[in-house]
Amino acid sequence: xxxxxxxxxxxxxxxxxxxxxxxxxxxVTLGFFAENIRxxxxxxxxxxxxxxxxxxxxxxxxxxxPRLIKSQGFQIKCADxxxxxxxxxxxxxxxxxxxxxxxxxxxQTPLGFVTTERTITQLKNSGGFRLIHNQELSDSIIDYYxxxxxxxxxxxxxxxxxxxxxxxxxxxxxxxxxxxxxxSTDRIIMPAENLxxxxxxxxxxxxxxxxxxxxxxxxxxxxxxxxxxxEQAVHLKEYIENKYHxxx
Length: 248
Description:
By secondary structure, the protein is an all-alpha fold. The chain is built from 6 helices and no strands. It has one domain (14-244): Four Helix Bundle (Hemerythrin (Met), subunit A) (Up-down Bundle). 72% of the residues lie in helices and 0% in strands. Helix 1 (14-87) packs antiparallel against helix 2 and helix 1 (14-87) packs across helix 3 (118-126). The longest helix has 74 residues, at 14-87.
């Protein structure tokens, strides 16, 4: 009968088991920390990318805001002048400036102002706000777009009054005269010939004045809100430049 001799296997000592466990534990721990560091670096880079993109967005807005303020200022002046002229209107008086201001009020288009929302949309859709660890900046960005939404809301309200006002014009202004207030390039002009009112009916005039007054008041509110938006844009850009060392 054949006898098999089993080799003697040297048993590991506790110290060796402990060292093996320690090596595995250190490897897993270091891997965990390395992954956390990598994720942190990626998040910081993503955060900076978002902030840089937002910086470009408000820079684009800054180019539009002064034009909006100027446009609203002119509209407010037109409304004030038109109300004054309508208060003393007469079908026998030359009414060129009434037609001129009336056309300008409804043709001013502040709705052309649209904030650049590329970055804010990405942040909302991807949950990217969690990556902006600077709470002060995050809150300021949200406040900025809240102010922008307020401007847009008021602009929409103004547009509704303009549509109603233009319908009211038909009672006091001649259509063929009103049509002569624009040239072939659709630019508002002052015709050389004398223009006259269709009617100076007090009720029709009063109805127009009511609409004009609402437009003037809302335009004043838009101007005030837009100036605040401009101040906020300047503040945000300066904050980002100083905090994140962005160049102008």
